[in-house]
User: Which sequence fits this backbone?
């Protein structure tokens, strides 16, 4: 069965999730088991059950709107709930009010921290963030208190794309600088000669909703557009007339670079001294994504050196930036105060989107834009906890083995278990594998609620099978295997005989372990990070690599070698506590007997 593309039809009762503090609400969900079994077994139908306790179903829930929201959104809310619009609340005032509210809607200016959830006394059931980012909401505290957090990720797409194009054109023609000059009483036509956009190459880094809309508009301006995004569907790019390329090719050939990737550990300071050095001299950069994707000090150095001719920035690592910021004050930098979503139309769209999400959640519906998971029974979490961790880490490992430019579209998950079909719901495990595959390069928070929806949106097809084993069903699972088909691997030994990237793991003494890579058996704890090396099987290899890591003060936690036969080929898996430097990894790669290696960050 295709897990990500066939979501069960859910029928939910129409009621509010509001309750008085002394009446705890119950929120439980059971989904149809989507796994395929290798042994013919009778399967029972399972249905979604959502329950909530309330003192009175006739009472309307109360929604606190703590920051300005468009009138269309307020109208939707008022049809279902009592709406309290109280803006500019102090933290103390918010904590006082929140115990009387079932839902809270904020933008980016209100901090919804743990104290807010504790002050709600259990009544707060939904927090709606009118926008994309949720940096101002404590997700872990929300989940602990059984509160669903939803956002509005799509309504400002066009506004952000239009602002990117506006900055692109304004930068190319020195509009902001020339405007300031004329207003200062000067007339410097020769100083502000610009460059044309027609025929220039624009590299769009991050080809999601906003990036693809920027590409459409840039094509209309006569630009040649290339893009880099490991998850961008090739057919969607071709339909727009965009060529998907590697990251290095994109930054090396572009005249203009437009940034549209999320801020994740993988993209943090992605543009730095090293990447600026690879760019075409005189490149121009636009950022309407997240400030942290650029090393701002490195950008100033690149501007001063002439490597980067100009930059146009709507976002910064610290907002607002300091008044004496060298970057903001730089003559060849155009800046705006995070205006990407600031159009009248976008604000109304965000208001409608977040109002619909909040009302749906209060009715007991599972929101597609949820960014945290509903509460799961404690006994289920306790038993599955190490397997949940194993599932996510196998997903992270597998996706890091995919070579750049290969789109991940088909994933197969196999569960080996002695339990009967009805005794193990794999929904949570599937969600965590999806999380591991998607989150490292996405701003989406994948969880039990939105995993299948998120996979479908990205064209990711996940199938599951269960291998039914003989033996005692004391533990839920014997092993989990993740396969990614129709891709190339940056570590050839991870490919199975049938041509898929394959990793397998199991839980030992409560700790997730990697037990198989491709056709090679290994045994390494999934803690810290891992180095995989394919080598000629000969004496002294463990000592050689261990010595290189020791000399660089990198602590080795585990080391395991799997081989096909003595003196043939082997794969060595090394668990490390710290990330080795590039020089250290280079030294490992230069060991004559090592044929290939890869560093994988967990």
Assistant:
């Amino acid at each position: 069965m295709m897990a990500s593309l066939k979501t069960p039809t859910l029928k939910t009762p129409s009621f509010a999730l509001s309750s008085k503090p002394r009446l705890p609400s119950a929120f439980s969900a059971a989904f149809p088991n989507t796994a395929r079994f290798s042994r013919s077994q009778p399967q029972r139908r399972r249905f979604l059950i959502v329950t909530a306790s309330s003192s009175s179903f006739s009472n309307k829930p109360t929604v606190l709107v703590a920051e300005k929201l468009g009138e269309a959104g307020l109208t939707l809310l008022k049809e279902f709930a009592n709406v309290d619009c109280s803006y500019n609340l102090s933290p103390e005032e918010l904590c006082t009010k929140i115990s009387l509210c079932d839902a809270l809607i904020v933008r980016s200016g209100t901090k919804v921290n743990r104290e807010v959830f504790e002050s709600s006394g259990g009544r707060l059931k939904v927090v709606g963030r009118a926008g994309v980012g949720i940096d101002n909401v404590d997700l872990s505290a929300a989940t602990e208190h059984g509160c669903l957090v939803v956002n509005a990720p799509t309504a400002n797409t066009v506004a952000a794309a239009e602002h990117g194009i506006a900055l692109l054109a304004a930068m190319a023609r020195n509009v902001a600088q020339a405007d300031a000059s004329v207003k200062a009483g000067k007339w410097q036509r020769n100083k502000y000669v610009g460059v044309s956009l027609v025929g220039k190459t624009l590299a769009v880094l991050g080809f999601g909703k906003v990036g693809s809309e920027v590409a459409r508009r840039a094509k209309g301006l006569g630009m040649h557009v290339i893009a880099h995004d490991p998850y961008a569907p090739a057919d969607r790019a071709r339909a727009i007339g965009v060529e998907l390329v590697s990251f290095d090719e994109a930054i090396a050939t572009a005249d203009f670079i437009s940034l549209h990737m999320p801020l994740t550990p993988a993209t943090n300071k992605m543009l730095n001294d090293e990447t600026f050095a690879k760019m075409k001299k005189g490149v121009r950069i636009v950022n309407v994504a997240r400030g942290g994707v650029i090393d701002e000090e490195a950008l100033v150095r690149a501007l001063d050196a002439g490597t980067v001719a100009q930059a146009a920035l709507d976002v910064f690592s610290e907002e607002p930036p300091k008044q004496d910021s060298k970057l903001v004050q730089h003559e060849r930098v155009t800046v705006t105060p995070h205006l990407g979503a600031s159009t009248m139309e976008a604000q109304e769209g965000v208001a409608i989107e977040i109002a619909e999400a909040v009302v749906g959640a209060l009715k007991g519906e599972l929101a597609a834009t949820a960014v945290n998971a509903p509460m799961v029974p404690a006994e289920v979490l306790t038993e599955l906890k190490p397997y949940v961790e194993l599932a996510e880490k196998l997903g992270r490992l597998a996706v890091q083995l995919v070579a750049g430019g290969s789109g991940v579209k088909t994933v197969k998950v196999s569960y080996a278990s002695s339990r009967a079909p009805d005794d193990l719901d794999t929904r949570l495990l599937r969600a965590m594998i999806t999380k591991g595959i998607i989150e490292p390069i996405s701003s989406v928070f994948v969880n039990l609620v939105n995993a299948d929806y998120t996979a479908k949106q990205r064209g990711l097809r996940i199938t599951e099978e269960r291998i039914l084993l003989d033996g005692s069903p004391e533990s839920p699972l014997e092993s989990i295997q993740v396969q990614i088909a129709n891709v190339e691997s940056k570590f050839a030994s991870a490919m199975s005989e049938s041509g898929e990237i394959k990793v397998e793991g199991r839980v030992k003494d409560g700790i997730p372990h990697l037990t198989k890579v491709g056709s090679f058996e290994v045994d390494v704890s999934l803690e810290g990070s891992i180095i995989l090396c394919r080598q000629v099987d000969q004496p002294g290899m463990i000592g050689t690599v261990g010595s290189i890591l020791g000399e660089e003060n990198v602590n080795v936690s585990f080391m395991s070698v799997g081989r096909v036969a003595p003196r043939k080929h082997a794969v060595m898996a090394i668990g490390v506590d710290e990330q080795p430097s590039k020089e250290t990894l280079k030294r490992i790669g230069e060991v004559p007997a090592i044929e290939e290696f890869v560093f994988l960050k967990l």
Summary: The domain at 62-151 is CATH 3.40.50.720 (Rossmann fold). The chain has four domains: 62-151, 155-335, 377-518, 526-601. The first strand starts at residue 36 and ends at 37.
